Amino acid sequence: MRKKVMIIGAGIAGLSAGCYLQMNGYDTEIVELHNQPGGLCTSWKRKGYTIDGCIHWLMGSSPSDEFYSLWNELIDMKSIQFINHDVSMQFEDRTGNVIRFFSDVDRLEKELLEKAKQDKKMILSMTKAIRKLRTFKLPVSKAPETYTFLDFIRFFWDLIPYYGELNKWIRISASEYANNFQTPLLRKAIRGMFWPDMNMLFIILMMVWFDKKTAGYPIGGSLAFSRLFEKRYLELGGKIHYKSKVIKIITEKFTTIKDKATGILLDNEQSYSGDIIISAADGHYTLFEMLSEIYHTDQIKNYYSTYPMFSSYIQVSLGIQRTFDQEPHMASMALNSPIVIDPMTSVEDISLRIFNFDPTLADKGSTLITLMFTTYNHDYWNQLRQQDPDTYKKEKDRIANDIIDVLDKRYGNIRSQVEMIDVSTPATVIRYTNNYKGSYEGWVWTPQIGFKTMSKELPRLKNFYMIGQWVEPGGGLPPALLSGRNVCQLICMQDHKPFVVR
């Protein structure tokens, strides 16, 4: 008899787990808070524009990367048009100096040596690592939880040629490494490439993927990408219940020291039973709301009290009746005066994405531009929306107007060409995804965390698993896919079944 698996959350992790479990002879159903798939991998429409809210680039967008074959197990990668940019990002200071981060490592090295001669040693150290790690392959085919002794031997043997570079770069954060540069703009660029507290290994690997042209952007945006997983899951026989908020994971006694998960309860009092329960939902809500405190461990409490997490964010999206054909798709520029985002947050630089490369997001002759501002002041935005909606709207309008002023001065005559304005806040993120503190990627992959991941199982609860960004530090779509794939391998191993992909 086929086992029934209930999955909480229809993001990429939940859909991935559902697809693989269906392939391996399990009956699955997914319950999702929102009315569409993807979680934070989403897009939305405003006044004829499609606003993208997630994918900047996708690791594994070409066959030159091992992740391509994993994506291809679930969706037809050849059906997606990927754009690989010659310049991954451009940084500008107030005096007009510009540094371009070329995707090609040779052009990148030449650009940095020309613009920051005094930092030659530091630059060559980075580009040496990029070239060295071009042949490094992440061990993604088999779940670590299912490794045998021989698997571990093989894993460490394969790491030997790369150990020096991996060990060097994972021990230092982007911010710490940036402090060693003498050129102010390059120092700022290294800090701003992704996240200042992220370990430098991620930054190096990111530049490796750009160089290999396997970090492309999928034309059509994030929701269109998520829909591919939804389609595959449904074709495999899975079921999705949208607009369904889970408030409790139902458990019962299994032994004197262990319980087992047996179902889920929704806020409308409807319940679903299952032989196995998987939460691909927010980690904090799963552990501290849906489950009883008796399943918490000191280690879990330590994660949520001490581990650094990605912040929430404000996203300002503008639909502009104008093309920006000659502008870089991503640019960071210094402001002449700071912009106040909220009582805890102000910014002296802005980073914008100019979607001049995706014709599906706007009508011909128009362009979508988005800007993202990180903030840890999620409570302020949540309370403002709930208690004072008028001020909430005014604050969003104020930020958008400040941004339009900046762009008007930078590009000229922008204000009169703005056709659409949309501002999402941490309150928006929490409302649609229920993410803890509105965080957009869970734990930051810091030097202190290293290669550590969190267990998918709880020691005192049988038949329950957690997957997604709260068990995979660094977050993002590839770990979400891998998390869902790996949990299926783990379940198959425990049920003495071979793991298959079809």
CATH top-level class of the largest domain? Alpha Beta
Name the strands of the widest sheet in spatial order: 8-7-16-17-18-15-19
Counted up, domains total 3
Helix amount:
25-40%
CATH H-tier superfamily of the largest domain: FAD/NAD(P)-binding domain
Largest sheet: 7 strands, mixed
Tell me, what's the shape? globular
DSSP helix count?
16
Beta strand count: 21
**Model regions low in confidence, pLDDT < 50 over at least 5 residues:** none
CATH architecture assignment name of the largest domain: 3-Layer(bba) Sandwich
Model description:
The chain has 502 residues and is α/β, with parallel strands linked by helices. It has three domains: 4-43 and 221-308 and 443-494, FAD/NAD(P)-binding domain (3-Layer(bba) Sandwich); 86-212, no CATH class; 312-436, no CATH class. The protein has helices at 12-23, 66-74, 105-115, 120-132, 149-159, 163-170, 174-178, 184-192, 200-211, 222-235, 283-290, 298-306, 378-387, 389-411, 426-433, 477-494, and strands at 4-8, 27-31, 43-46, 49-52, 58-59, 82-83, 87-92, 98-102, 215-218, 239-241, 246-253, 259-266, 271-273, 276-279, 312-320, 330-342, 345-354, 367-375, 418-424, 461-462, 464-466. The strands form five sheets. The chain has a seven-stranded mixed β-sheet, with helices on both faces. α1 (12-23) links the parallel β1 (4-8) and β2 (27-31). α1 (12-23) runs parallel beside α16 (477-494), α3 (105-115) packs antiparallel against α4 and α13 (378-387) crosses α15 (426-433). The longest helix is centred in the last third of the chain and has 23 residues, at 389-411. It is globular, with a radius of gyration of 23 Å. The model has no long low-confidence stretch (mean pLDDT 95).
